[in-house]
Amino acid sequence: MDPDQLAALASGLRLDSQSSPRTQPSPRAHGPPPRYHHGMSAEEVTRYLKEYAEWFEEDRKIPPEPATIVDRNQLIADQRQRRAQLERMAHESARVGGAGIPFYMTMVGFPKHSSSTALQNLRPITFSGMLVRRVHLGHYLLCRLVAPCTRMVAVQTVVEDTEGIAHDLSIYNFPSTSNCSLEHLDALFPPGTILAIREPTLKAPTQGSRPLLRVDSPTDIIFVARNSPLLQNVSWRTGVAVAGFRSLPATADAWQQRGNDHFKASQWFLAAFAYSHALVLDHNAIPLRLNRAEAYLRQRYYTGALYDAQQVLAEVGVSDTFADKALLRVAKARYGRQEYNLAQEAFVRYKNKHVGDSSVDSWLDRCRARLRESSTGIYDWPSLFRTAQRKIRLDAADFVGPVKVRRMKHRGGGRGVVTTKDVKTGELLIVTKPFASVYAPDLPTDQLIVTLDLISKTTRERTDSLLLSLIVDKLYGNPDLRNEVYHLYSGPDYPAPPETYPPSPSDPAAVDPLDPKVNINIAQLEAICTYNNFCPFRLDGPRVDQEAKPAGLYTFASMFNHSCAANATWYCIGDLMIIRAAESIPAGTEVTIPYCVEESYIDRQTILRKHMLDKCDCRLCEEDRQDGDERLRRRHQLKSRLDADAIMSASLAEVRALEKDIRATYGPTRGPVRPLSALALHVVAEKLRMSGNARDMRDSLQCDMQALECYGFVLIRDSARSPSGSKLPIAKDRIPTVTSFMEPADIMLRIACTYYMLREETNATNWLKATLWLTDVSVGGGKELFMLIHEETLVRMGIQSFAARVL
User: Fold this and answer.
1) What PANTHER family would the database entry show (predicted)?
2) Cα–Cα distance, 763 to 759 (Å, whole number)
């Protein structure tokens, strides 16, 4: 999120006392970290992050030291007080409808350790043997919770080791805990829960004097069962049980009942968590494994569901009832994993065993539709568009057309995407679902989290923080997908990824939330998100979402490199990304897409820096740089005037003067592509049309046509048209990519409307056909999708019926 937007948003909120944490003096020589406040400008954020990075590096130079011993009872009392405060806030918010929104700041991009060593290869350690600022490689900490949990950005509680030494514990990125209730935390982390933390780190305090145990990766946490070999010959100095709290269930039946209760409440992760506890006590219980498989399906842990269901089918002598349930779960899990052929086979097997049962017919239809989409690239775009207007996340298959990933020598050996054959303008290259995505409706309404990125030195969107949590959650329940994410580029601090992509599929693996079988490196994942996240522009949604920009990780699409003047273009219908060729592309040529389409060079550079791109060498940026810094600054200043709401109330003379000033910021030897001039010319055209005078309306047509040329369109003037008037008024060899197709499409529709008002229906029809062509080569779908995408504009202009008749 832009810091100025953030300040405006936060200024309208009544922030509670946790919005501005008070940084207490630190005993360390170099002092406390610099302080962040929510009203910082973009320049202030950049300066703050630079200062924080410098402070962090100085802090890392301090040698490890023994931890301050903190009174156990005081730690517990303080944590209980924090919990009581949150409970009061929640109660008050529910009673009066909100009494202020808490504001939290979190930071990504700094070094942090995530273990990759199996627990059985680690040795135990206690707090007395640990040092602050040291990652205790080769060790694990056995500890148990002795206080209830709270949650701000992290889950926070107090743990003690076997010697009775206690410290605060902060757990980040744990599945299902993002914006969860306190009751949810109680079910996951009740006092008395025993944890084994792989290769733990005691962090130095940045506030107060207490060090804390910080866990960034949820896969570093193992929940230790009462019958675990880890507890042999282990005794707790403070007693067998944690005083003041109920003991955990001791039987499989009790855990199963708890799981059933969570399942009925649609708490899928908690249900699977409880069933996992039960399976520890009764490993061979088929109903438990089936129940967990179903909970995994609801949680979208398709790998875990598939593995559990296959285990049931492999049992000798399993009953037909259980086998049927397992087969259905296998089929649904295969479908969720986008293994549509295998899913169809499983559904057919079930259908053959239950002749006349129509319960899986719809699933078979869906499998056939997905197989057709993935093999042919033929989609029902209008239907998908309508569905996306009410449900963003679509049920559709991925498609990979005539493209492949390979190393690009001209990019220093980095990867890129090339065509495998000659490609025509508008040809479909890929359709892909996101690995994970977040939209404004997904964000919590009871808190505001701001993420600062030390890698890009920018403020991230509010959606980015939640996106990271969703990626972690998906990997946690689908460990075989790890390489799909970790084979993406993660910056110069990590080994270069493999030359090929996507990685070969992996076999389904067991998923146990008590003992994760995947290693999630959070620091690398944060870097992957910084370098690869998209802001997916939805054709079916608002042009600009004022609440929050969406965020998504599209893994295969991340292979496409950027160019402002790209040869391919991309859009989203719902969460489905569509990439098409914007021009004819010879076989073996690199395919590029625009990461941004800002008219201002300065705006583009700001956005590209968030993608860690220092410089774009496309022809548009080269021409901009040749215009010189002074012209670029002036153009950027004039753009703010063009964007202002007051522009439409300005006089014709004023907007003409503004257009002239913008035109003057482009050098005399510059090529025809001048995106900001296009915007300015269209504003002049709109102002001319407002007079209703026929002469002004004809002048507006010329302004809009010049605007299209400034976007890069080649116009075919009247003299070049056939007598029938059927030839399009624009050349069809390529579509410009320096802007979204929606902007020139709106201009073309306005031209068509103006001709219609002037009673020149032939010209109006030709411009409608030009808009249809532009829309179709950009996103497909023909006339039907065209009428849906532009419905609001056509209705507003009063030409919807005319367009439906002549197209």
Assistant:
1) TPR DOMAIN PROTEIN (AFU_ORTHOLOGUE AFUA_5G12710) (PTHR47643)
2) 9
